[in-house]
Structure prediction request, 682 residues.
Amino acid sequence: MPITIKDVAKKAGVSPSTVSRVLSNHPRISKETARKVKTIMEELGYHQNVMARSLVSNKTYTLGMVLPRPAEELFQNHFFAENIRGITTQASRNGYDLLMTAGHSEAEELTAVTRLVKGRRVDGIILLQSRRNDPIIAFLRNEGFPFVLIGHSEEEILCVDNDNVQAAFDATQHLIAQGHERIGFVSGPPHLTVSIDRLEGYRKAMNGHWLPMQPEWIVEGEFLQESGYRAMSYLMNLPERPTALVVIDDIVTFGILRGLNELGYRVPDDLSLVSFNNIALAELSSPPLSSVDIGIYQLGYMASQQLIRAIQDDHPLPLRTIVPHRLIVRESSLNLKRNWS
Amino acid sequence: MPITIKDVAKKAGVSPSTVSRVLSNHPRISKETARKVKTIMEELGYHQNVMARSLVSNKTYTLGMVLPRPAEELFQNHFFAENIRGITTQASRNGYDLLMTAGHSEAEELTAVTRLVKGRRVDGIILLQSRRNDPIIAFLRNEGFPFVLIGHSEEEILCVDNDNVQAAFDATQHLIAQGHERIGFVSGPPHLTVSIDRLEGYRKAMNGHWLPMQPEWIVEGEFLQESGYRAMSYLMNLPERPTALVVIDDIVTFGILRGLNELGYRVPDDLSLVSFNNIALAELSSPPLSSVDIGIYQLGYMASQQLIRAIQDDHPLPLRTIVPHRLIVRESSLNLKRNWS
DNA sequence: GCTGTATCCAAAAGCGCTTTCAATTGGCTT
DNA sequence: AAGCCAATTGAAAGCGCTTTTGGATACAGC
Prediction:
């Protein structure tokens, strides 16, 4: 039988309401009473029943999240783990926990979110991926329920994202600074905003330096190793091939790297490479990859923060939060002789 | 104002208790009434308030978990993501959700767990790592609160783990089958059970085939790339060096691989490698690594399952669940000429 | 016709907490 | 001394649900 505020109240010789007020640091309670009650709580080992509090206050101090379905494994894993870390850190700093639920199909995901929202299980929802016309977003908007999207959206919703145009611009700029003039771009699926934005950043940088852009230097693919492999063999067989590549994702670069290895080309001597996301592996590959760190931890951190703000005050927030990126230069894009220590 | 069972009851012309019974599929309710009530619930868009139910039934249908603090990044990320996937899949299949909370120090972790347990926030706890004399384990045992540990423990608690002796035996056996006789073992920190167990498996396999074991072929280190690098340079400088290695962790193998690369050795021709955990990267490296898949997803899955069983029925369960491993043979241990397709 | 026994449902208590409303006190003013 | 205000606390209602208890109805057996 757990200890309740009644037990504390009785022992302290006050009413349950007083104990409750002590719990929530109510201002109109005398210091003396507060201290006395707190002592008794310690003594009795009292702990607040969260459910009961939630029921009456209609607040759960919990953020909800639907587990993303397995997608591009490697990046996803890294992204997911880092992201969660950011989310929970900021959440727990504000007294919130994170509730996760799984959905193995789009329909199930919606059901799960509905259950969380309608069942008053959480105070807000964090969304990790958005599809076009996402029914979950539609549902949440319709309910007027607080939520934040980590990623890009055209819609008028709270979201946290990177400036991908600028990121690609920076990456390209870096290659240009290393003396490259023939720079290619290995993109992802062309309908994704991230592909579009990064391509634009690449274009901007190239144009800014009056560098020619051959259409055949721009290749589209998936976020897969194979895509990189294929792009590599295509590009290296061009009569006038690029000396450097900006690549949409580290995974794709691994494919390129593997292909180059097989063909006996060396990185960065024969081809310099810069890609995106700076997964842990980027540092471990040989040579280590230059990569744009998109601040995954911070994406989670900011999302959590913005969501909690949205929950707590009704002031309209700036809808879009941009998390800064950072180009991490490693050997794959350095115009130096390799220098293994 | 959300719709409650009272609203449903009124509209259906029954009492709230009847609605409640319909919700929980109480047997003593007529099919007809049940159908009628369910129709009304649909109509009104009723959803059960989870908090209220939890309050009275003293069940939350939630499992709790403390986020591991950042450790060996790469493996952790992979492990964590896969693990969570396993946990939530099985949990949601049983109508449970997963609540995560963060602790940035050991003390904070304990506080967090206390809050979950004493605040009746969750029905059980999943622990991801165990230290010697883990205060969290002590606390949970003391409370008699259901929990499961993913990993090894000497104590009499519910846990889910691999058979690491057998796994190492299999890995070594495989190398022997490939014709190797001089096989080394690159271990992890010597006080960890996982290191001890895997070393034992290696020994068993070697002894089983009457193969000599040089003490200098056994090297201890950390779960770090650098450890592999160092082990490699040590081993390759031995007068009688091994032709194959069993390595405690894929990350360590990456270090070995990098070192070998620098020195111009080739894998598997000059040195064959088998390691553990089969992280996503193992497949992507060149050459792809042979690795023992320890079934991370299933570790989570089983942990979730065992915990829910422990929560739901009081029957004593088998304390230890062993998740099967599987050796994935890739090029790093194949005694063939490399054959890139 | 009366009791027995199923079956189905309603009434009401209560889970542990917050919060409104009112009561009590002591110190000040007039 | 009466009145008033502020500060502090208590009583009680109620959040939405489950569950116990018992009432109503129907039908069988005596």
Notes: Chain B has a mean pLDDT of 88. Residues 2, 4-6, 16-17, 19-21, 23-24, 48-49, 51-57 of chain B lie near DNA strand D (CB under 10 Å from a C1'). Chain B touches chain A through 55 residues (CB under 8 Å). The two ends of chain B are 64 Å apart (CA to CA).
